[in-house]
Amino acid sequence: MKRCRKLAALLGALALALVGCGKQRVPDTVEETAIVVDKNGGVTYHLVGDFEKDYYDLSELASMASEEAAEYNGMKASGEERPVTVDKVELLPENANRVTIKYLFDGTESFSEFTGNILFYGTAEEAFSRGYRLKTNLKSVKDGTLLTEEQLKQDGGKTVVITNTKAVIYCPSTVAFFSEGVTLREDGSVDATGAEEMVCMILK
């Protein structure tokens, strides 16, 4: 399922960013596309992009987002459960030319199906069993030492976050190791906007 892509097209030049991992406090106003993973695996997705006022209005965009979420839920939901919810659609307070759509997902699987982007949260052992592989060694936040795939396999209980989304990522605990191409921000978040490959982070 790649239903968010139509909305991304409407938002114009979309700057995706992984919102930092750790026990960071997510800003009250999220000004760049962000993924927030909670300790139970739920995902909050702040989709931020340019707002073309000449072609669309805010209520139209909100209706489209809600309709696509309802369509997905109709295929995936059971009972009263809703895998995806549109929490709000609003213009950024300091920039009326930018808009954010805030989605709530019941898990990373729903996020991946709905957006078409990879997002995994679980143990290293689970990740390897699903076919994920490290293309580069992981670097320690503490001292810069490297962790290989073989070393990670020996300690498969470690919690990992894996994604190909160029975004800023907030995780439920602090990052201990991260892959090449990402930057650990001062607030503990991880910026993977410049990563060319899928990225992996190991949490404490």
- Counted by DSSP, the helix tally is 5
Global structural class: alpha+beta
Q: Indicate the proportion of strand residues.
A: 25-35%
Euclidean distance between termini CA atoms: 32 Å
Q: Judging from the principal axes of the Cα atoms, what is the shape?
A: globular
Care to describe what's here?
The protein has helices spanning 4-10, 58-76, 108-115, 124-129, 149-154; strands spanning 34-37, 43-50, 84-92, 95-105, 119-123, 138-140, 146-147, 159-163, 168-170, 175-178, 183-184, 190-191, 199-203. By secondary structure, it is an alpha+beta fold. The strands form two sheets. It has a seven-stranded mixed β-sheet. The protein has a six-stranded antiparallel β-sheet with strand order 5-8-13-10-6-7. The radius of gyration is 17 Å and the shape is globular.
Q: In terms of topology, how is this protein built?
A:
Blueprint: H1 4-10, E1 34-37, E2 43-50, H2 58-76, E3 84-92, E4 95-105, H3 108-115, E5 119-123, H4 124-129, E6 138-140, E7 146-147, H5 149-154, E8 159-163, E9 168-170, E10 175-178, E11 183-184, E12 190-191, E13 199-203
